[in-house]
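Usage

Read records sequentially. Each one opens with the input sequence:
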Amino acid sequence: MAVIKGFKGMRYDTSKSGDLNTLVCPPYDIISDTQREDYIKNNEFNIIRLELPKGGDERYKEAGSILNEWIDNGILKCDEKDSIYVYEMEFGSNCQRKKLKGFVSLVSLVDFSEGVVLPHEETLSKAKIDRFNLMSETFCNFSQIYSLYMDEDNKVYPAVDGCSQGKPDMSVTDSDGTIHRMWRVYEEKTIADISAAFEDKKLYIADGHHRYETALNFHRHLVSEGKAVSGDQSSYIAMMLVNIENEGLVVYPTHRIIRDLESFDSGKVLSDCKPYFYISEVLNQEEMSSSLNKLYEDGRKAFALYTGCGKCYVMSLKNENSVKQLMPEMSDAYCGLDVSVLHSLVLERILGIDKENMANQKNLTYTRSLEEAFENVDIKGADCAFILNPTKVEEIRDVALASEKMPQKSTYFYPKLITGLVMNNFTD
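and closes with the structure output:
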């Protein structure tokens, strides 16, 4: 099934580049222009200059030139032996301290139709064009795809954990207080044993759908140009692989903010929702969160509607088959998602926001922050906000196994992988 192998990871030589804490950054798509400038002011060698180039049409070429300059000057160096890189994140979540451990390796790129690497969310073309242009000039994966695997026979995690008991080779702490640790593992037998354990496994992409599709398209482009063949380094991509049963795996919800609808009437929305949902008004945000959590634990399909001025309504589905009746061609796994219930019954059917509108974010935007969702309605003039429970990991797996994709922004895996600890340079 999944083909994985070690690689000669490209890393910073901190004797020339400075403190590693000043060289890494969060994922490029959550960094503002101001934050980007601050990273560069703090250290001119910050990875953001390569991962998120700015400027005109020449910005991708500039990133390629900067990369070559840093390699020539020894700022970045590739390890001498093929390795895998055990990666641990220690972080706070819901007043608890958690640890999530996996490993970074190369994974053979295959089409989703082969059922080996499985997506769970729709993607946007604009993001894929940007990543394709960057890859064309740098021939690098600066960040890793975040994927999950099932370890039923418990062979992989004990081996990975055993390789990471001593002092890490790299360690940084990000602005959220998350500690990122990494151990380099280059023993050939260990890598071979772990690789062999994946011969019967599927991989489920948690984060990085755009980058995966882009890498696959880029390799095909190189093959069509006669610049690569199957098995070349361009036919692999760097991934962080995590056991789906890992106790540190955390998924946050992504809330929906609705704006600029014509003649929005919250009373009419509630009235139109009554045939589908039990609706109860709650007094405050705390009561709303408590009610949603209780429904989540009971396995009920539910979310909340906030209409401003403190008015909040918890809505739970009356008929569990409502979405299936509308979309009989979709799997039970897809129809049973809270986000599918919201999108199909409310956003599309009642509010008239179609899939194209959602993709273009004309009337719909997203946030992980509950406070931001409320603030957009109370202060920034949004029509309303829908507050969701997190998607369960097993739901993500089941939708992927059904060869289906969730609506965009259905999940938010936390914490995000840091960029800059190890990179995959496949120039050769």
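Summary fields computed downstream for this record:
- Residues 168 and 183 are 5 Å apart (CA to CA).
- The first strand starts at residue 4 and ends at 5.
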